[in-house]
Write a structure and sequence with these properties.
The protein is α/β, with parallel strands linked by helices. The chain contains six helices and nine strands. Helix 3 packs across helix 4.
Length: 197
């Protein structure tokens, strides 16, 4: 269960989230759309707990949360394999699992590469692979396909679609084609309400 109650957040004097009430479905994939600057990324960070509400509450019953940011937040001192292994609970065979995710995202050739040696698209794929590998039951993805060409984006969407069948995945995107690939329930964020499209 994920429930937002009277949720507010301000950057200085500018209120971005204003008295938002919404209960997400327990499982499935939800796509959030809306104009730039409306607060979509802020909302994900509030749900993830990396930002604290100015007022109101985020109540979550999920066991583990993983997030892939729009700008990949990779650990720059770790190579690709180590970045994925960092989020795994089973460290003893973690490198095997990391290898599986690198293969799924066509990053095997870069397993010993530091993030600085990767292209923008490769960093985004690595960030997404790391989030999916974490086996979280609440998965938050901010524009996860924005730096990928269509064939890679479609493959990544298929991996996202199958990654968290028993939990909730929330995806921010401006492209409703991505929502179609994910077979997601689409909601529009603009002002206080979240409305279903």
């Amino acid at each position: 269960m994920l429930k937002l109650t009277d949720l507010c957040f301000s950057y200085g004097n500018r209120r971005v989230i204003d008295n938002l009430d919404f209960t997400f479905p327990k499982t499935g994939i939800i796509v959030l759309t809306g104009p730039s600057g409306i607060g979509k990324t802020t909302l994900l960070k509030l749900i993830a707990g990396t930002l604290k509400p100015s007022e109101g509450e985020v109540a979550s019953s999920y066991r583990k949360t993983a997030m892939a940011f729009q700008e990949p937040r990779l650990l720059n001192w770790l190579n690709s394999e180590e970045n994925i292994n960092f989020v795994l609970s089973c460290k003893n065979n973690g490198l095997d699992i990391a290898q599986e995710w690198l293969t799924k995202f066509d990053l095997t050739a870069h397993k010993k590469s530091l993030p600085s040696a990767l292209s923008g698209g490769e960093r985004q794929r690595l960030s997404l692979a790391r989030a999916l590998a974490a086996e979280a039951d609440l998965l938050l993805l901010d524009e996860p396909f924005s730096a990928l060409d269509e064939p890679l984006a479609k493959r990544a969407a298929a991996l996202v679609k199958s990654a968290n069948p028993e939990g909730l995945t929330i995806v921010i995107t401006h492209d409703l084609t991505h929502a179609a690939w994910l077979e997601a329930e689409v909601h529009h964020l603009e002002g206080t309400p979240i409305t279903t499209l």
